[in-house]
Amino acid sequence: MSSVRLYQIVKTFLHFGLDEMVPAKFLPWYAKAARHSIFWLRNKHKDKPIEQRFRLAIESLGPVFIKFGQMLSTRRDLLPPEFADELALLQDRVTPFDGEAAKQLIIHAIGQQAFELHFKAFDIQPLASASIAQVHTATFTDNGVDKDVVIKVLRPNIAKTILADIKVMSLFASVVARWLPDGKRLRPKEVVAEYRKTILDELDLNREAANAIQLKRNFSQGSEYDKVLYVPEIYSEFSHKNVLVMERIYGIGVGEVDTLHQLGTNMELLAQRGVEVFFTQVFRDSFFHADMHPGNVFVDATNPADPTWIAIDCGIVGTLNREDKRYLAENFVAFFNRDYRKVAQLHVDSGWVPVNTSVDEFEFAIRTVCEPIFNKPLSEISFGQVLVNLFNTARRFNMEVQPQLVLLQKTLLYIEGLGRQLYPQLDLWQTAKPFLENWVKEQMGIKAVFSKVKENLPFWNEKLPELPDLVYDYLKAGKENQHQQAQLLALLNQQQAANNQKLVFGVLASGFTVATVLLFGQQHAALALLSGAMSLVFTVLALKK
């Protein structure tokens, strides 16, 4: 860990007065003395609220901390609303690095000959610059056909910078966990660990390429959802750990609502399709884009009456196993029907809360949180916020953090925010309810049984010829086991009988030994010798047993 970098971070935090987040009464005397000793580092932003100073400090520390702030802004289950809202203002555009340096990194990854043969009109000026990478445009030539592409390249030495900064973050997380009054509930160490995993995954562009290919395939299966989401083509043969080549898209930024309105885009359909995209990824595919903020989502309005969503930057994806999907879908449906008892029972059955949790108390806590929300019209209820409230309530009952649910919550908040931005009248509940009810029926009804049988037919078709042999082997093994068990039982009976005899002989030997001592004491020498002989005989018999 660089001492210069640590000093820079401490200096930034103190210049923005972030030490005030820890009340003085919780600080030991030596911490207060250390703070007063660096008197030249004073709060220079006393006129700003603490949450704004927190955001500005993170912003001034550079790309790694900016990315951390963006991730932190999605953890509304941990942060006060004013902090989450302030951190959400962090932009994903940072100062780009030198375009010539980027070109050399790309050539080094792709190869000089391949680059000159396939890539023309490379633009030195980046199209976009983000926290850990930047994007350049070029023309890709293959068999005489030109295609517009973008080339994403990681910042040089970014991995080293990230690891160094994460070490510093871990240090501050330990301080916050120990000294901040709400430190344990905020779980800063776990948050930093989650961030470390997330950002290190993003440093491997081969992983992002594979995620994008998978997501594109999921929405190209001939189903009714084919046209609701488009994922740009990935040129994987030219992609490497630090370079990603993909098709350039010309969609409209999802935040450009005025432009979409001017084109006559069907905003209601677009918003509904956003909801369908989310639930399809989660419940049909168990593979969802978990970073769908406005910078990663565009709209293809070529046909305004039939708009299509476009998703880029698949560095972060989430997955759910079969059990999580089923419990989650049933939870949603129970919420739609305001069946809080079932919600509580599902949390216990799924293992999300301890098995000894009182279902009655849990149900009452959920009802207390949710009933005031449901008094509003459905169109005014935030589905994502209900999910946040549910997780907060469950955490009071010692619900363990489920990483896959945190990503899900974050994605749902993004999707709902985008949907309401495009079409404020969006009733997410009514849009999602039929989808989820149908999914639950398909997974738990007669159709699900036949689907599962059909799915397992190749396995049983392979194993069926072996079935008679397996039955014979099982019966034969059972007979042999029965014979072995009979032998073992007989042996145990013999050992038990021997132990019983040993005990009897031991008791007799002890008795004659006591008698020998007493007889010698009363000067009955002959009887004492006889008693001693009997004690010796029974001792030998006991030892032999």
Automatic annotation (TrEMBL):
Functional pathway? Cofactor biosynthesis; ubiquinone biosynthesis [regulation]
Protein's membrane topology: Multi-pass membrane protein
Keywords of this protein's UniProt record, alphabetized? ATP-binding, Cell inner membrane, Cell membrane, Kinase, Membrane, Nucleotide-binding, Transferase, Transmembrane, Transmembrane helix, Ubiquinone, Ubiquinone biosynthesis
Report TM segments. Answer: 503-520, 526-543
**InterPro entries assigned:** ABC1_dom, Kinase-like_dom_sf, UbiB, UbiB_bact, UbiB_kinase
What's its job?
Is probably a protein kinase regulator of UbiI activity which is involved in aerobic coenzyme Q (ubiquinone) biosynthesis.
Q: What name has this protein been given in UniProt?
A: Probable protein kinase UbiB
Q: Which gene encodes it?
A: ubiB
